[in-house]
Amino acid sequence: MRFHLALTLQALWAGVCQSAMQHYPAAWGHYDVCKSQVYSDEGLTWDYMACQPEAADMTQYLKVTLDPPNITCGDPPETYCALENPYMCNNECDATTDELAHPPELMFDTEGRNPTTFWQSTSWKKYPKALLVNITLSWNKTIELTDDIVLTFESGRPEQMVLEKSLDYGRSWQPYQFYATDCLDAFTMEPKTVQDLTQHTLLDIICTEDYSRGYVWKNDKTVRFEIKDRFALFAGPRLHNMASLYGQLDTTKNLRDFFTITDLRIRLLRPATGATMVDENNLSRYFYAISDIKVQGRCKCNLHANSCVYDKEKLSCECEHNTTGPDCGRCKKSYQGRAWSAGSYLPIPKGTANTCIPSNIGPVIRQNVSSLGVANRKEAPQVALSTAPSVHVANSKRARVCDNELLRCQNGGVCVNNVRCSCTSDYSGLLCENHRCESELGGCGGPDSGQAPLTRPSLPGLLLLLLLGPALLRDASCWPALL
User: Fold this and answer.
1) The pLDDT of residue 188 is above 90
2) Which of 402, 399, 398 is nearest to 418 (CA)?
3) What pTM value is reported for the model?
4) What are phi and psi of 45, to 5 degrees?
């Protein structure tokens, strides 16, 4: 009897622990709801939350341009040889015939078609003059990258290439990554991989030799810019700790800007040759051909919209929180009672909306992020920012803790001189994220902490405490579930 009772209690204990530890579902943190109606002391009101669109395939919304414009093969028609077999020269390119044309839009069509569709450049007929191609992808909208950028080559992968980004609609460019078979020779840079990066060096621009071998097997013709591996420096190998990543993105503007683009540019500098010497008697072997480009991301809406519409060949956020503009980057005309601010990911999991307020109310009103009156809503776990030195700590000139644009101080804290948060008497920490009583004698449950003490265990809880005995000592994290 006692044996069966122990098994029953163990099963009950496991269920209690599991429910106590699972604060939110595995898919938390999408921030896909901007507001919900709740009951408060004033009646039915809106509870505003930070929100953003779901990630999507952004290649369906872009405009592609090539420089030089006449670099696509087929005008005049041309015959190509295979890189791996220089005597196999039966590949035709003819812009006037649909089956033999290879225009730029074939870099973005559905994969898996047979035969494979791809864009192709003219061959290297003007060797030794460099065969240079710029492929520019433009969205006319600010985009936040959420997954790796992946280029799939139908030809051999380029021996020299640069991936560049723009944040100002193509007016200026900065490199994202360099690619070469020999980084020192091509760009006077030591070769590195994304695995060599740390939280300190995440923003460093590197040259990699991983993706620049000439002829490789058909299932390994991709070139990547590794977004998720960079996310993992804060969120862990399987991105299981997104709270840490969101905390870093929320408080370090340069880090957030690193994953933000309006345009991408692929600079192809030297085609695959498959050898140390170029065969000048068979230059039809050398060209660029791309069958697919993947860019996964979302519209940047400054956490003020959960949807982005594509109308008249233009992306635009459907703004909430009394904001407006293509990126929800300003308050509506009658809602400028305080300066506009982007939404905040913190506190996890619903964030802070930072709504614009009516002009006649004035700037003294602050948003209450605790959502009073919400029935049966669990408190979000406190965000634990990475204990390793962050990008902000590594280079204080790159970012501020708070500023007039971001207003990241929490729990009523005020940004002072765009540098630090001045916290109320109840909170402490870099962002005023910690209850001050946590560092006091007796903790937050003490009589002088300003917080209500822990409630007494219920009678069933006491029974479990007595019967389970030593098991409780091994896993004290589940105790609050019994209270």
Assistant:
1) yes
2) 402
3) 0.69
4) -135, 170
More confident residue, 229 or 372: 229
In this structure, the dihedral spanned by the alpha carbons of residues 361, 365, 367 and 371, taken in order and rounded to 10 degrees, is -90
For residue 216, the tally of other CB atoms under 10 A from its CB is: 16
**What per-residue string of b and e applies to 343-356 under the rule 16 or more CB within 10 Å gives b?**
bbbbbbbbbbbbbb
Quick one: tokens of 432? Answer: 């005023």
Structure tokens at 383: 């965000």
Tell me the β-bridge partners of 163. Answer: 177, 266
| Range list of β-strands (E), 397-445 | 414-416, 420-422, 427-428, 434-435
Reported as type and span, the H/E element at residue 378 is none
Task: Please give the backbone phi and psi of residue 456, each rounded to the nearest 5 degrees, phi first.
Answer: -70, 150
Q: Give the count of beta carbons closer than 10 Å to the beta carbon of residue 20.
A: 14
Question: What tens digit of pLDDT does each residue of 426-448 get?
Answer: 887 777 777 776 555 555 554 44
The angle formed by the CA atoms of residues 452, 453 and 455, to the nearest 5 degrees, is: 110
Give the pLDDT confidence of 273-297 residue by residue, as tens digits: 877 789 898 899 999 999 999 999 9
Contacts of 422 (CB under 8 A, 6+ apart): 409, 413, 414, 415, 416
Query: 409-436 b/e with 16+ CB inside 10 Å = b?
Result: bbbbbebeeeebbebeeebbbbbbbbbb
Kindly state the tokens that stand for 302. Answer: 């400054």
| DSSP one-letter code for 234 | H
The arithmetic mean of pLDDT across residues 34-51, rounded, is: 88
Most distant CA atoms of the chain, gap in Å: 91
Composition of the chain by helix, strand, coil, percent to 5? 20, 25, 55
- Please report, for residues 27, 29, 140, 379, 433, the alpha-carbon distance to residue 24 in angstroms, rounded to integers and kept in the order given: 8, 9, 36, 10, 20
380 to each of 370, 432, 454, how far by Cα in Å?
Answer: 10, 16, 18
Query: Rounded to an integer, what distance in angstroms lies between the CA atom of residue 341 and that of residue 358?
Result: 14
CB distance 199 to 170 below 8 Å: no
Decide which of 327 and 476 is more confident.
327
Identify the band that residue 270 occupies on the pLDDT scale cut at 50, 70 and 90: very high
d(CA 422, CA 70): 59
Interval 176-204 mean pLDDT:
95
For residue 54, what is the enclosing H or E element?
none
| Residue 444 φ/ψ, nearest 5 degrees | -75, -10
**Strands 296-299 and 133-145, how do they pair?**
antiparallel
For 243, the 3-state DSSP assignment is helix
What is the distance between the alpha carbons of residues 431 and 424, in angstroms, rounded to a whole number?
Answer: 11
